[in-house]
Amino acid sequence: MNKKDKNMVYPERLQGTDGIRGRVLKSLEPEVSGLSPLDIFLKKGIITEQFIELYTYCFVSLLMKKKIAKKGEEIAVGWDPRDREGVFTGAAIRGIRKGGGCAVNLGIIPTPALPVYLTYRGSCAGVMITASHNPSDQNGVKLFLNPPGIKFFPEDDKLLTDEISKIDYKDVKSKKLSGGFRDMHSECIDVFLDFICDRRNSWVKNEKLLKNRILIVDSANGSYSEIASSAFKRLGFKKVIDVGNNLKREVNQNCGVSDLEGISRVSPSMVFKDECNGFPKFTENITLKKIFKTGRKYRDKILKNRAFVSGAVFDADGDRFFMLEYDALKDEVIVLTGDDTASIQGRYLINERQNDFKNAYYSNTVESDILASLSARQMGFRIKTTGVGDKWI
Questions:
Q1: Radius of gyration (Cα) for the chain, nearest Å?
Q2: Domain residue limits, the chain
Q3: CA distances from 231 to 167, 190, 225, 228, 251 (A)
Q4: What is the pLDDT of residues 364-374, one digit of tens each?
Q5: Could you give phi then psi for residue 153, rounded to 5 degrees?
């Protein structure tokens, strides 16, 4: 068993903006031989299944030391589909159980489903195995506490880092599975769908507005595959077309939000090689091809306001969203980022319920578009700028 480097200076925090992420390799690969799981992560930025097991074990141990959890309490764990063999997700479950927690297996779920289910079931904490919008050769861990499903803050990260630095993986490996195991995947999906389709949680106040809207749903071959389209159908969209929903393909590849970062409009010449040379990262993008094909098919109806063609684009774990809209006049696709859609939602709230939302806070991060803040201030909101990460919002 590889030992920790005693001369290694450990950082205050192993975590970045939202947990840990890195390229993944199995612990037996030659590239990582001779190093402990923690040293592999620190020296090479590589996550092994042993490091995941160590990480979740220490997470549960910390919760028990801080009296947040008791032995045998439920720790829910979900993931996106990039780990097809279950090497890293299985390690996460082992770490939870060796730490004395009861692992509640939620399987492949969108990240937003985890805090919803924690609240529903009353589990004390949750673990999400994902690298979000990062390439499929990477993975990571996000942690949640309940109530109300909040993520770890920097001081929490420091405590967990200290716990990890004190424990040798060989001691974790030799431990028995003392905690229980429950499979609650189906219930979690049902609860989440009911939650997001509940009219009290929906922006859809008039179903008639959706009856002539065709929606292309891109789940980035990730956690929202089938789930997002089921929700949109329940909400009343005229037609829902699934793309990027193949769990056997690589996540975030030729689909999802990553390719659209920094793009506000997409012209046909950027997508189709026969109309120009094509924009390298768009020539294989299945979502853009589908929205152009569908938009052109319904172009006459769109120009008469009898149809609309839109797109809902997510990342692998479903916590990032872009909206696409086909512009029939220019034969282009408009890309609306989180800042854009938040501005639209803010304007809707001010117009519909001015007395409730005038001078209310509009919160975004330091990485948000400054024009979004200026627009929100002009609408009548007070601006609150936070650090990067949804935990601060």
A1: 23
A2: 20-191, 207-336, 341-386
A3: 44, 11, 11, 5, 21
A4: 888 888 888 99
A5: -95, 170
Q: What residues pair up with 144 in beta bridges, in sequence order?
A: 126, 151
Q: What is the per-residue DSSP string for 84-107? A: TT-HHHHHHHHHHHHTT-EEEEEE
CA-based end-to-end distance of the chain: 43
Nearest residue to 59 (alpha-carbon basis) of 163, 165, 151, 180: 163
Fill in the amino acid letter for 375.
S
SS3 52: helix
Fold held by 207-336: Alpha-D-Glucose-1,6-Bisphosphate; Chain A, domain 3 (3.40.120)
Q: Does domain 20-191 have CATH number 3.40.120.10?
A: yes
Q: Which residues contact 276 (CB under 8 A, 6 or more apart)?
A: 268, 269, 270
Write the pLDDT tens digit of every residue in 219-263.
999 999 999 999 999 999 989 999 999 999 999 999 999 999 999
Are the beta carbons of 261 and 236 closer than 8 angstroms? Answer: no
